């Protein structure tokens, strides 16, 4: 306020602030003026910064109030603001000079009216049910006797104590506690992570994987339990491969995780009861089983023994069974040698009887008889043989007779006679023929003689030949070298040496010519 | 009778079979020799059940988490 002391300059009588001064003044005024207030409105857009701080708006139908919740405050919120949720936020008004903005630093959020909250829960339920996450077929049976039980809950408080006590009463087991916040904004992410973390463990590892999970929380307001209505928790529980019991709140409180868990327990204590059987009861049962087994065994044995006794009583004594046969054996045994002897004697008698007729004389006689028979037969044999031979020979002779040459000779003779006759006849016929022919020849010759020129010659005619040929005319006679004249008593050559042509041809031809 | 070695059976399986064996013996519809074998099996099963029941041992531990919420180990918890 030094400017009040300074000389006033025109137009500068108004106080002058630096930006930071006015920002600080505004911030101070806001904080002082409002203090801690409650504001009701609907959550607008929500933004979680990387730093972990939460920025969101709370609005009504006309205005918007920027809200912040620092990282350290988030875990103490009973309800994490969610867009559309009607809330009452509690905090201090403040300003952020860096952006010339004012906002409400919220340290507590409550849901304004359960109706709104339940409506939201119903919406989620419907969505998850539509995905089939509540399907009874998805629910896994709990192990009868789990070795290790994983409990997801607050490590302090009555809930874990109740569970451990009830487990110890029934059947002490190994328990692994995964500590989580069971309310506030961290509740849902921590519970979801714990479910996933237990499932990620390896069975029998350094951190052994439990075979049963219990998610537990004591009773509280709907805002307190709200973390178990978060979708991430429900999804983690649905995805758990380890069977999971949910035990959140009291029996009347139903949260979203109860719909997806494999079994819902009304209280944490009830969850412990579901988790393990009662050891002493089992021990008693085992003992009872043993006793029943032994009793059944001995009863059956007794029954069998009794039956055996009854049966053996009904069984006749062995010697009484045997006495008859033994007696029979004795009787037959005694009679056996005697019967044997008698049998042999009987057979011997029959042998003797048969042997008596087998004397050698008898045999010989029979032999002789047969010999005689043989001889007689053989005697008969020879003549009959001869007779047979004679017969055959005669038959042969008969045939041979018929086969003699006489008939052939006779035949030959006959044939020769006929040949002779024929030859005779042929000869006679031939001579006759010849005689006939000679007669005729003589006749003809005589005829020829008479007709021939020789006869003519006798009557004075001559034949003239010149050079061998008959000359019938003078011309030829003149030409001939010599002429030969034939007379009836011989031939005469004319002009023998000089003239071959002689008189023969001259004379003969007119003779001949005149003749013919 | 199943062929699983009794020593490898879970409590539940051993118990279920023991129950069956007792039932069979009580009905008495098995031959003598078989009933002896059944009885022996039953005795072994009973022993197995008892052993599993006597294994009952309380051991409670809490998982320790690092800053990222990852499990790092356990610390014993006194269940009182």
TrEMBL record, chain A:
- Major localization listed first in the record, in broad terms: cytoplasm
Where in the cell is the protein located?
Cytoplasm
> Keywords on this record?
Cytoplasm, Exonuclease, Hydrolase, Nuclease
Which terms in the Gene Ontology molecular function aspect does this entry carry? exodeoxyribonuclease VII activity; nucleic acid binding
| Enzyme Commission number(s) | 3.1.11.6
Q: Pfam families given for it?
A: Exonuc_VII_L, tRNA_anti_2
Q: Which residues form the OB-fold nucleic acid binding domain?
A: 17-109
Low complexity bias: start-end ranges: 496-510
Described by its record, this protein's role is as follows: Bidirectionally degrades single-stranded DNA into large acid-insoluble oligonucleotides, which are then degraded further into small acid-soluble oligonucleotides.
Q: What is this protein called?
A: Exodeoxyribonuclease 7 large subunit
Organism listed in the record: Marivita hallyeonensis
Gene name linked to the record: xseA
From TrEMBL, chain B:
Protein name per UniProt? Exodeoxyribonuclease 7 small subunit
Q: Give any GO molecular function from the UniProt entry.
A: exodeoxyribonuclease VII activity
| Summary of subunit composition and partner proteins | Heterooligomer composed of large and small subunits.
Instruction: Please tell me the species this chain comes from.
Output: Marivita hallyeonensis
- Specify where it is mainly localized: cytoplasm
**Gene Ontology terms: biological process:** DNA catabolic process
Q: What is this protein's function per UniProt? A: Bidirectionally degrades single-stranded DNA into large acid-insoluble oligonucleotides, which are then degraded further into small acid-soluble oligonucleotides.
Entry keywords, A to Z: Coiled coil, Cytoplasm, Exonuclease, Hydrolase, Nuclease
- Write out the similarity annotation: Belongs to the XseB family.
> Where does this protein reside within or beyond the cell?
Cytoplasm
Coiled-coil region list: 39-66
Cellular component (GO) terms are: cytosol; exodeoxyribonuclease VII complex
One Pfam family of this chain: Exonuc_VII_S
């Amino acid at each position: 306020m030094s400017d009040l002391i300074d000389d006033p300059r025109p137009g500068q009588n108004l106080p002058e602030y630096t930006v930071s001064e006015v920002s600080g003044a505004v911030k101070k005024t806001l904080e002082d003026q409002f203090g801690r207030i409650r504001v009701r409105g609907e959550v607008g857009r929500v933004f979680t910064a990387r730093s972990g701080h939460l920025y969101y708006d709370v609005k009504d139908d006309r205005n918007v109030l920027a809200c912040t919740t620092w990282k350290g405050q988030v875990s103490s919120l009973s309800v994490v603001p969610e867009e559309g949720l009607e809330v009452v936020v509690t905090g201090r008004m403040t300003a952020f000079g860096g952006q010339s903005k004012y906002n409400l630093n919220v340290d507590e959020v409550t849901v304004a009216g359960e109706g709104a909250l339940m409506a939201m829960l119903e919406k989620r339920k419907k969505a998850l049910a539509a995905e089939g996450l509540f399907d009874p077929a998805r629910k896994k049976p709990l192990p009868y006797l789990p070795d290790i039980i994983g409990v997801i809950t607050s490590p302090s408080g009555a809930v874990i104590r109740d569970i451990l006590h009830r487990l110890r009463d029934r059947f002490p087991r190994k328990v692994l506690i995964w500590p989580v916040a069971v309310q506030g904004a961290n509740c849902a992410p921590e519970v979801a992570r714990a479910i996933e973390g237990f499932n990620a463990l390896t069975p029998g590892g350094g951190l052994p994987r439990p075979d049963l999970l219990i998610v537990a929380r004591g009773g509280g307001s709907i805002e307190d339990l709200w973390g178990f209505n978060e979708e991430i928790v429900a999804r983690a529980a649905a995805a758990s491969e380890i069977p999971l019991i949910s035990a959140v709140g009291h029996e009347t409180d139903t949260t979203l995780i109860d719909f997806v868990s494999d079994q819902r327990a009304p209280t944490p204590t009830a969850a412990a009861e579901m988790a393990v059987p009662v050891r002493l009861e089992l021990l008693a049962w085992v003992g009872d089983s043993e006793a029943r087994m032994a009793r059944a065994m001995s009863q059956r044995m007794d029954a069998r023994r009794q039956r055996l006794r009854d049966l053996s009583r009904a069984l006749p004594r062995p010697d009484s069974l045997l006495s008859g046969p033994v007696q029979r054996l004795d009787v037959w045994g005694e009679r056996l040698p005697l019967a044997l002897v008698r049998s042999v004697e009987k057979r011997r008698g029959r042998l003797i009887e048969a042997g008596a007729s087998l004397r050698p004389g008898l045999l010989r006689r029979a032999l002789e008889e047969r010999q005689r028979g043989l001889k007689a037969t053989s005697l008969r044999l020879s003549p009959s043989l001869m007779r047979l031979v004679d017969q055959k020979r005669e038959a042969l002779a008969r045939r041979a007779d018929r086969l003699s040459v006489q008939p052939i000779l006779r035949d030959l003779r006959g044939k020769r006679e006929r040949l002779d006759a024929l030859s005779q006849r042929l000869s006679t016929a031939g001579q006759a023929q010849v005689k006939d022919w000679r007669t005729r020849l003589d006749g003809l010759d005589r005829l020829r003689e008479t007709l021939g020129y020789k006869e003519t010659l006798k009557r004075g005619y001559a034949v003239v030949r010149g050079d061998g040929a008959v000359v019938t005319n003078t011309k030829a006679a003149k030409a001939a070298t010599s002429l030969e004249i034939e007379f009836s008593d011989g031939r005469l050559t004319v002009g023998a040496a000089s003239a071959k042509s002689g008189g023969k041809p001259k004379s003969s031809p007119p003779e001949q010519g005149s003749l013919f | 009778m199943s062929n699983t070695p009794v020593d490898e059976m879970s409590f539940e399986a051993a118990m279920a079979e023991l129950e069956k064996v007792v039932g069979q013996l009580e009905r008495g519809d098995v031959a003598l020799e078989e009933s002896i074998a059944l009885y022996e099996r039953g005795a072994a099963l009973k022993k197995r059940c008892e052993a599993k029941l006597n294994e009952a041992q309380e051991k409670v531990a809490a998982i320790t988490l690092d800053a990222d919420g990852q499990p790092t180990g356990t610390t014993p918890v006194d269940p009182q």
